[in-house]
Amino acid sequence: MKTGVVLKPQHFMSDAYLASAAGAVLRRYFTKAPWRLPVNIELLAEHLFDLVISWELLADEEGALTLGGVRPRTRQLVLNDRARDFFEKNAGSENFTKAHEVAHIMLHVAETPGVEPLFSEVLGPPPIVCTSALKRPPREWQADRCAAYLLMPEDLLRAECMRRELAAWPPMYDLSRFLGVSISALCIRLQELKLVRIDGREITSLQAKR
Ligand SMILES: [Zn+2]
After folding, report:
1. In sequence order, what are the residues at sequence separation of 6 or more whose Cβ sits closer than 8 angstroms to the Cβ of residue 25?
2. Which label site among 110, 131, 146, 154 has the fewest CB atoms less than 10 Å from its CB?
């Protein structure tokens, strides 16, 4: 029987759903890796999803820089060779893009028996392409949120923060480099977990001290 890989129709996914999807994947990941941060997203992509990571020249989409994409059928996670500068200038963005592409595989594609393989292209643009554009469809937002949950799981992040004094920017940048996420992604996550408060350039640690 033929088996095709299809892109699921776009639909609403709650934040709680995205967090629990990431949690389920991390539980599988941590049977293969030590129970601590950072999450090695390449290991996770390769071992749990059979994804092979490669670099290609990808075209930009509607004026926005293409960062990467996935070819679900051939299990390829592709990063754009032309985004290397962007990745270098924006620390954590390469790692975050890998997590974002893994999230698309988790959330947005399905194997469906009996349909023609839609995504059989080995060459040509990947069927899912992701850009740096700010205004993006819900599918892109969902992949970003899920990537944040994959790289910054609540329990382990809280434990990691207890070991650090996050009352100034240098230790915040240290932590973002350690986790492989951008400083802005880290700030969002730490604020939603009420671990820090940020007012302009002022940063206050909200962790209960033991
Ligand atoms: Zn995307």
Report:
1. 44, 48, 106, 150
2. 110
CA of 65 to the centre of ligand 1 (A): 12
Distance between Cα 143 and ligand 1 center (Å) = 6
Enumerate residues with CB within 5 Å of ligand 1 (an ion). Answer: 130, 140, 143
Q: From the CA of 60, how far away is ligand 1's center (Å)?
A: 13
Is 98:53 a contact under the CB 8 Å cutoff? yes
CB atoms near residue 31 (< 10 Å): 9
Ranges of the chain whose pLDDT falls below 50: none
Domain ranges of the chain: 3-151, 152-210
Instruction: Compute, in angstroms, the gap from residue 100 CA to the centroid of ligand 1.
Output: 6
Alpha carbon distance 6, 89 (integer Å):
34
pLDDT, residue 3, reads 66
**The model's pTM:** 0.91
